[in-house]
Amino acid sequence: MNAEQVIAAKFGGSSLADAKQFRKVKEIVESDPGRRYVVPSAPGKRFEGDEKVTDLLYEYYAQLSRGEDGADTQKKIRARYQEIIDELGLSVSLEKEFERIEYAFSKGAGEAYAASRGEYLCGLLLADYLGYEFVDAAEVVRFGQDGHFEDERTNFFLKGRLARAQRAVVPGFYGADDAGEIHTFTRGGSDVTGALVARAVQADRYENWTDVSGFLLADPAIVKDPKKIDAMTFAELRELSYRGAAVLHEDAVYPARREGIPIHIRNTNHPDETGTLICRKLEPEQEVSITGIAGRKSFAAISIAKNRMNAQIDFCHRLLEAFDENHITFEHMPSGIDTISVILPLEEYREKQEAITASLQRLLHPDKISVDEDMALVTVVGKGMRSESGIAARFFGSLGEAKVNIKMIDMGSNEINCTIGVSNGDFETAIRALYQALVL
Ligand code: ASP
Q1: Average pLDDT in the 356-360 region?
Q2: pLDDT grade, residue 3 (50/70/90)?
Q3: Is the CB of residue 411 less than 8 Å from the CB of residue 201?
């Protein structure tokens, strides 16, 4: 590999769950001198049914808040780190750190502080083990006092700090505000820190090391042994993640996408495997016609009918206003000549049902409003959806053969995806039929 390249490598919780995993991480980091910036999560599960350190920390915090002493949980957390220190023969001691944490708790440090200690302590150990400098995320990842993430300031601080560090470990998941209070991203947020570090050092690549070999073409809980996605574009990733294919934290994509830094998903337990590469543009030999199939259940379709709707100039404007004033973002809006449907998550619809209906009545005076509360959305993503003939025939033919009734079709003219709405009960059948017809 090219030693000139700069790589930011984020390792997930299962990649750092114990000493054995730490060894694998070190081997990976040392196998390419470009891996100069490393972002760890907190130690995750070592085996099925095990506990993640972050979950233990949340629990510990909850116990203390209830006035319990939480001694057992604290013991478990300490033991996780001590085991790693002992087995790797590290010289660091976390005694002082734990004292500091205790003290912070006694002074009323918040839940985010508690949760962040998982990454913080893991980062201290990893930096020591790798011989890298430790850069506390609280110094460089900036939040406002109300908890919102400050993107530009973070980039400024991270850039400046990492320019002075040849090789560094920056713990994921948290940052701090100007008063020193700790804040975290949402769960899985070390992915975000990894992307921020990659951007700050203008990395050639952002490697995201996890316990799967990349994105799969379909959910393995639905399709047996689905193929792996070797490469895809950021736009395709966005479509698939939005529809439920989860490997990366959503907010991790933007910083990398904006800078055009490729994200490479790799498997810590199988570093020889090629993983999934996500970049702005694929090379012709990387392109495939179908990139992936994903979906989600439980949507509602609100259909509004009004005679001569198409002739009424501000109809759509007022329709959007009805959703806007109820603070609702929707998924799709397929339309006919005198009907238009708006598809949104069922839960949200149920929560705001009365208010939406009232707004639609007031703003649109429709002839009829009907609601279908049994809809699942399935999206097929890939360049073939736009540029290959015959795909649509296979697409719809396969669903017909599987006796899946299609309730809605949405495909823009310049899109890399086609979304259909089916009954929740047909969801799995539809995905299997599409996989069979389009991929195999
Ligand atoms: N440790 C945090 C969590 O469990 C963040 C992360 O792993 O990315 O959500």
Answers
A1: 96
A2: low
A3: no
CA distances from 282 to 14, 77, 103, 190, 235 (A): 30, 44, 52, 26, 11
Q: How far is the CA of 435 from the CAs of 238, 310, 394, 416, in angstroms? A: 20, 37, 11, 17
Give CATH superfamily name and number for 7-284: Acetylglutamate kinase-like (3.40.1160.10)
Beta-strand relationship, 174-176 and 168-169: unpaired
Kindly state the tokens that stand for 179.
Answer: 């008063």
Give distance in angstroms: CA of 73 to centre of ligand 1: 18
Q: Is 41 in the pocket of ligand 1 (CB under 6 A)?
A: yes
**Per-residue model confidence as pLDDT tens digits over 202-232:** 999 999 999 999 999 999 999 999 999 999 9
Helix (H), strand (E) at residue 199: helix 190-200
In the chain, where the domains are located: 7-284, 292-438
Query: Measuring from atom 6 of ligand 1, which residue has the nearest CA?
Result: 188
Which of 16, 45, 54, when mutated, tests ligand 1's pocket best, judged by the most ligand atoms within 8 Å of its CB?
Answer: 54
What single DSSP character describes residue 213? S
Given the CA of residue 52, which atom of ligand 1 is nearest to it?
Answer: 4
Q: How far, in Å, is the centroid of ligand 1 from the Cα of 132?
A: 22
CB 423 within 8 A of CB 211: no
Verify whether ligand 1 is closer than 6 Å to residue 173 (CB atom).
yes
Overall pTM > 0.70? yes
Residue 57, amino acid: L
Question: Which contacts qualify for 400-403: CB closer than 8 Å, 24 or more apart?
Answer: 401/433, 402/429, 402/430, 402/432, 402/433, 403/429
Tell me the CATH number for domain 292-438.
3.30.2130.10
Tell which residue, 122, 94, 112, has the closest CA to residue 14. Answer: 122
pLDDT at 2 over 80: no
Residue 40 Cβ contacting ligand 1 at under 6 Å: no
